[in-house]
Amino acid sequence: MSRVKEFDFEYFIGPAHPGVTGNMNYHIWAEGDTIIKIEPNLGYLHRAFEKLIERRMWIKNFPLIPRICVPDPDVNEVLYAMAIEKLMGIEAPPRAQYLRVFMLEMSRMASYLFYFGGVAGTLGLYTLPNWSIGDRDYILDRFEEISGHRIYHIYQTIGGVRRDIPDPGYIERVLELMDYLEKRLKDYDKVFFEHPIFKKRAKGVGVVDKETALKFSVTGPNLRAAGVPYDVRKAEPYLVYDRLEFNVPQVFTDGDVYSRVMQRRLEFEESIKIVRQVMENLPEGPVNIKLRNPFELRVPEGEIYVKVESSKGEYGFYLVSDGDVKPYRLHVRGPSFSHGLQLVRHIGPGTNIADIPVILFSLDICPPDAER
Amino acid sequence: MSMEEKIVEELKSILGDLGEVWIQREKRVYAKVPKNLVLPILAYLKDKGFHQLTTITCVDWIKRGKFELIYNLFSLYHENIHVFIKTELERDKETMPTAIDIYPMAFDYEREIHEMFGIVFEGHPRLDSFILEDWDGPPPMRKDFDTAKYVEEKYGVKDYTEEIWKRMEQPYREEKDE
Amino acid sequence: MGLFKISQGRSLWMVHFCTGCGAVEMPPTMTSRFDMERFGIAPMATPRQADVLLITGYLTVKTLKRVIMVYEQMPTPRYVIGFGSCTVNGGIYWDSYNVIKNLDLYIPVDLYIFGCMPRPESIIDAFIKLRKMIEEGKANKWKDYIERYDWYKQNQAKLFDINKWRVQK
């Protein structure tokens, strides 16, 4: 019996779709159910940040900077403040550095809870998003008490942080929240992380092995899940990370969807440890250096590259200054530019159409920081 | 001898008099080379073990009339050091050979620089529109492009006018017969 | 027909389209803390069976083309809610060359929610106001799009070519 030849079909996984992480587009050529070629299409969220930053003074850029990366906005503010401080040659006081580490780790935990909800939603296990996004709201409550806004806290400034913790009971509330989140991880295990459907659909799917990861500039938890123990907090310590105790877990190193999800689950526990150490050992002192006149601040000439470990990968700012009241050039290196474009073109062919949302959500591609 | 000084020695022994090499701070090595030596140096460093091209930055120095390209390389096997290769091009007169044969990640970085600054990379298979669709103006990241004037001409709305207030205060329309 | 309007206001389905950065406050509104399904609001994947289109935040020119395609596929009566201060006058991106400044010139808007970002309680408050507007018969801007179609198309033609829905290969 002869078979009818199947033709190539073209599909769009378009912008208005619950299967892509945000507002972007993938153009797919498929034969039957297997994919032959996949081509990304970006540009739906381009706001021209690098042009707008050149038109405003140094201190007036702080409301604009956290909007570059939407689920994890504290990383941008800390990077901008660190780059200016290194060019000027000043250093934030110790209490401010501990508070900066606190904000970065809480933001990492909120981003990981959002990630777990996203991956479980694509597999159809909708109990986990309802629980984890509800628990993430308790973290946003702590952010609201210390800075006034749930998502875009404009809390860092040149020379430290803007204000101190609101009242001494704040530390006890944060430690209670850490105990609650640690207990909830056991409930998540029963509902999602040890579920047989998740294990069957995630093992061996979307494999990124060690050579591919090193060739295509992959960084962050995706690289650690492929077997390379590289973490910017250990390799080039910034702020006070060289005085805190934490591990870089290397248990699941196969490089498939299962390893990437479990790697983030283990790093969630390490973040809880870091926040406990920071809150129990906060030093006394001032929280910022008083600048003489922030609206007439001039930063000396020079260029600098700073980088930080965010929840998606290695995040970098390249700042060029020529001694004026405004920045001359700021280039943002986002981790989703290398994950979302060349890597997907390479590992896409050969998979099924139904596995594409699972792979895209597990790589944690966020379009705002790929196209700024 | 520290690892940064070893890298500086090796690069100086290749370049000789043609370029400058210096250490900026801990774990950052800079090298300034003329345009036709960029690809050989990238190939040499890739053989040595610099496996990752982190990014390519472009800066527009309009007063001197030049574009500056900065290649950012990184290696795990050399104690996490970043090496920056800088070069300069004449504005609107010179083109640059592409680096995708050495580092495949440069495919998208060069597309973005071509769209935003207007630099042509010879040998690149696909230099069409990437982020902006149906764009009819000059390359937008250049220093002589004024975005406030462009916004006034294209969108035509400067501030709250009478018409806009009237439309927003009455979000529903009156029904004449129902 | 009072009964028809009362029951329509209590089951509004919205299109699942995250257009801008305001969409990060939509999952907390939909899940267990500020549950909005108890008011009858649920997300829907296709525009052919939806009532409300939420424009969450700023719009670029490339997204505006797709939003107009989605809006014209929804069956009448259909409602639009503008979310955040970027739909009012451009917000913090007032001098960006790629962000549109005034949403009301391109598609008709029934209701605005102010803030950057609006809290989940304000989103639910806006849906309750929309329900009251539907019961009183005041949410009828969709008729404006049908009657003044040429004026809207003239405004859209200043930004892109309306006869050519280009597909990028």
UniProtKB/TrEMBL annotation, chain A:
InterPro entries: NADH_Q_OxRdtase_suD, NADH_UbQ_OxRdtase_49kDa_CS, NDH1_su_D/H, NiFe-Hase_large. Gene3D superfamilies: Cytochrome-c3 Hydrogenase, chain B. GO terms for molecular function: NAD binding; oxidoreductase activity, acting on NAD(P)H; quinone binding. Residues 123-290, 297-372 form the NADH-quinone oxidoreductase subunit D domain. Keywords: Membrane, NAD, Translocase, Transmembrane, Transmembrane helix, Transport. The chain crosses the membrane at residues 109-128. It comes from the Bacteria. Signal peptide: none annotated. Belongs to the complex I 49 kDa subunit family. This is NADH-quinone oxidoreductase subunit D.
From TrEMBL, chain C:
Keywords: 4Fe-4S, Iron, Iron-sulfur, Metal-binding, NAD, Quinone. Pfam families: Oxidored_q6. GO terms for cellular component: respiratory chain complex I. GO terms for biological process: aerobic respiration; electron transport coupled proton transport. Residues 18-130 form the NADH:ubiquinone oxidoreductase-like 20kDa subunit domain. InterPro entries: NADH_UbQ_OxRdtase-like_20kDa, NADH_UQ_OxRdtase_20Kd_su. Signal peptide: none annotated. GO terms for molecular function: 4 iron, 4 sulfur cluster binding; metal ion binding; NADH dehydrogenase (ubiquinone) activity; quinone binding. Belongs to the complex I 20 kDa subunit family. PANTHER family: NADH DEHYDROGENASE, NADH DEHYDROGENASE [UBIQUINONE] IRON-SULFUR PROTEIN 7, MITOCHONDRIAL. This is NADH-quinone oxidoreductase subunit B. It comes from candidate division WOR-3 bacterium.
